[in-house]
Amino acid sequence: MANTGNQISLSTEELPKKWYNIIPDLPEALPPPHEPGDGTSRLELLNRIMVKTCLGQEFSTDRWINIPDEIIELYLQAGRPRPLYRARRLERYLKLPEDKVRLYYKREDLSPTGSHKVNTALAQAYYAAKEGFERVATETGAGQWGSALSYAASLVGLKCVVFWVRSAHDWKPERRVLMNLYGADVYASPSKETEYGRKLLARDPKNSGSLGIAISEGMEYAMNHQKTVYCLGSVLNHVLMHQSIIGLEVMKQFEKVDDWPDLMISCLGGGSNFGGFTLPIIREVLKKKHETKFLAAQTEASPSLVKGEYKYDFADPAHHTPLLKMYSLGPEAELPKVYAEGLRYTAASPIISLLRNKGLISAVAYPTDERHVFESARTFVATEGFIPAPESAYGVACAMDEALKAKKKNEEKCIAFNVSGHGFLDLPAYQKVLGIK
Q: Are 201 and 190 within 8 A, CB to CB?
């Protein structure tokens, strides 16, 4: 194995020029969306409120989708390609056998807004502007997607409206300021801006919200406002396809150091960063070129892949979406609060769900007190120097746990994990969970 130091970088010329679409390579056909059988057509609604190009990509059977030159330029502006790091200091701290148990992590936290969400935000905003829309509407959980779409909208001259889960909105004022700096209008969800929000607030004025509720509000807002289009930050196929830029870079980076991951780990809520990180490598497994395993780190607050049922279900509690085949806890499920708000969603992406059902993906869920997750993140900060977002901390904790298991079993193992976002605007969570004075 060639040793080129801790950082494995790509030149701008090595930036992938195509997104990878796993649809044609899946072990069986992806179950199509279904109409619920009552009310208006949900598929027709999506066609009316979503970006047409993205919907075309959603159902595309092309394995490779060209990235337009304008989006390539936006990716370069946002700092792609991003480095892969060998976590040598963390390896030494864990006393892992040298070069036998190896840890690598991808730095998606280096985007302008601090997460991987920019990868699809730039694509969706670009297509929305090209199709003549003037405003994008969306939801956000932890605030990373709302920040990313606000940023992307500002670069292409669009207005942006964000419905933010109230429980996160209220303890993250700095991230709200960031979205405002990009020109976005941000509403705590449930809000008084939509009929669905007003209905929920009338029932419970202290409703702390959920990602599903915020999705319902974002969709309703787009329905009722001209020149406005709805953008989604996770779950759907085109989002995971845009995020495949991550895994495509990772493959090139491992080739540079003559190594390959035996295990890939990332946190998972809806599935965008996990999918983007792993799907290009899952293709290699499906082609029987490698034997890599894939492990999703979830919270027990919303353990969709661990305790959910694989079935057709709505993706939002207002039932605006078609029925999607996915591991679901039910769109109306009451989810305990956690600081990793971005993972607190009731279902997993249909693509991820199919792969889980076929045994290609495993999952683990961590306790809602989040103590172990944040303690692991503290170790990562102290050894590697980078502070992960609470969601990313789940991937960090899981990678450390798996490395120690390999050490105990005297196995040789290369483990790769994705740091999907930074935690600079999440320090109160660290302070609270770890009891820092």
A: yes
Q: Confidence band (pLDDT; 50, 70, 90) for 4?
A: low
What is the pLDDT at residue 40?
A: 86
Exposed, middle or buried, 298 (CB in 10 Å: 0-12/13-18/19+)? buried
Cis status of the peptide bond prior to 190, with omega within 30 of 0: yes
SS3 label, residue 386: coil
Phi, psi of 106 (to 5 degrees): -90, 140
Does the predicted model carry a pTM greater than 0.85? yes
> Does 2 score more than 80 pLDDT?
no
CA 288 to chain centre: 27
Query: In whole numbers, what is the pLDDT of the chain averaged over residues?
Result: 95
Q: Are the beta carbons of 246 and 277 closer than 8 angstroms?
A: yes
List, for residues 349-382, the tens digit of each pLDDT value: 999 999 999 999 999 999 999 999 999 999 999 9
Residue 3 has pLDDT above 50, yes or no: no
Domains along the chain with CATH numbers: 7-15+79-114+244-434 (3.40.50.1100), 18-68+117-230 (3.40.50.1100)
Which positions ≥6 away from 65 have C-beta within 8 Å? 18, 19, 21, 57, 241
CB 239 within 8 Å of CB 118: no
Could you say which DSSP state residue 29 is in? P
Rounded Cα distance between 325 and 308, Å, is 12
Residue 137, CA distances (Å) to 196, 278, 288 in order: 15, 28, 41
Angle, alpha carbons 209-311-232 (nearest 5°): 45
- Residue 258 CB partners (closer than 8 Å, separation 6+): 1, 2
Contact (Cβ atoms closer than 8 angstroms) between residue 365 and residue 304: no
SS3 79: coil
Q: What pLDDT is attached to residue 5?
A: 72
Helix (H) or strand (E) run with residue 309 in it: strand 309-313
Q: Is the dihedral of CA 128, 134, 137, 143 positive or negative?
A: positive
Residue 352 makes CB contacts below 8 A (sequence gap 6+) with 240, 268, 271, 274, 275, 296, 305, 326, 361
